[in-house]
């Protein structure tokens, strides 16, 4: 392979596998990167289906056992796009085998697993083997711009952080019991799947972590039809029903280290909301507001401006000065959801090419897992306040 070409082995070919494949295909064509990715192998349990995915998504070869990826000398990066119950075993083994790891969110299904993954990442880092968690919404330019404006003090002292992640794909009680609705596969429901995103994105924007939370969760539909065996659930399913073992919705409040107050809502039962991420931050000098359904816009309120002309300003985040945008189109030509993954892969390859550690780190993924667990514990204890431990700092290579 050419100088600084890194072979990628990806596990999984569903929604995230397709989103990552698009990013592996495109990142090097839009960003000048110090390392080049080669889409060497895609892995899935069913050979025929995986061969179809390889042809469709642009992968050179197929494996049906993820362990085979770790034994290949033509693979330097492992990209984990499989359900959360697989993350820890694969990531820990891949890091020990000297492979860099990109792991989809949430990092794992439990804090205990995440702690083992952090230990493996810290050990691997000593040998220049690096790791990253796939919180892609950090790489939406408007969210990256929001972080920049907060870090420059444009909002002053942060007082409120308000975030929602609203979906409605399982409102129908006849929607089958897919893996995301099974605790042993997904860990939790809306809380870990989409709540993780707003925890990470808001902490990223304000540059601060939650210090304590109180929450409540609900499972509105407690039994669902078992899906066909092809869904990946236990063989022979199909006909009959099974218990939903995760939350359908989670609401929680929190206090950040700075004293700012946070309110969060993650639900799959907001009828009519397909993938609505809404974030508003209020500070002593101003506010900002983001809505993923208008993902190329950021609304900024400058509290220091004259009242006569005051109010929220709509920033169209498509200028070359805006994060990532120089790689794309002239101002005003919008970008989409898939670009956040291209930015994620571009940043990963930049770090791997430069020998620096990608973010978010596994330590940041662990901290999100701790928040999720604290919300779940609070909900189980009748919404009792749960304090959070100080975040584990990402080690640098020795
Ligand atoms: C399902 O809720 C899902 O695919 C999440 O798993 C993704 O992380 C989110 O970006 C879109 O919705």
Question: How would you describe what is shown here?
Answer:
The chain has 398 residues and is an alpha/beta fold. It has 2 domains: 5-137, NAD(P)-binding Rossmann-like Domain (Rossmann fold, 3-Layer(aba) Sandwich), CATH 3.40.50; 141-294 and 296-335, Dihydrodipicolinate Reductase, domain 2. The chain is 32% helix and 24% strand. It contains 10 helices and 17 strands. The strands form 3 sheets. The chain has a 9-stranded mixed sheet. It has a 6-stranded parallel sheet with strand order 3-2-1-4-5-6, sandwiched between helices. A two-stranded antiparallel ribbon has the order 9-10. Helix 2 links the parallel strand 2 (36-43) and strand 3. Helix 1 (15-30) packs across helix 9 (337-354), helix 4 (87-96) runs parallel beside helix 5 (111-125) and helix 8 packs across helix 10 (362-380). The radius of gyration is 21 Å and the shape is globular. The model has no long low-confidence stretch (mean pLDDT 95). Alpha-L-sorbopyranose (SOE) is lined by residues 15, 167, 193-194, 275. Alpha-L-sorbopyranose binds at residues 15, 167, 193-194, 275.
Spell out the key features of this protein.
alpha/beta; binds alpha-L-sorbopyranose; 9-stranded mixed β-sheet; 6-stranded parallel β-sheet; Dihydrodipicolinate Reductase, domain 2; 17 strands; single chain; 10 helices; Rossmann fold; 398 residues
| Rg, alpha carbons | 21 Å
Order of helices and strands: EHEHEHEHEHEHEHHEEEEEEEEEHHE
- Helicity range of the residues? 25-40%
Mean pLDDT score:
95
Number of strands: 17
Looking at CATH, the homologous superfamily of the largest domain is Dihydrodipicolinate Reductase, domain 2
State the CATH architecture of the largest domain.
Answer: 2-Layer Sandwich
> What is the CATH C level class of the largest domain, in words?
Alpha Beta
End-to-end C-alpha gap = 29 Å
Shape: globular
Structural class: alpha/beta
Amount of beta strand? 15-25%
Unreliable residue stretches = none
Task: Tell me about the largest β-sheet.
Answer: 9 strands, mixed
Number of structurally distinct domains: 2
Instruction: Identify the bound ligands.
Output: alpha-L-sorbopyranose
Number of helices: 10
Which sequence of strands runs across the widest sheet? 16-15-14-13-7-12-11-8-17
The third-level CATH topology of the largest domain is Dihydrodipicolinate Reductase, domain 2
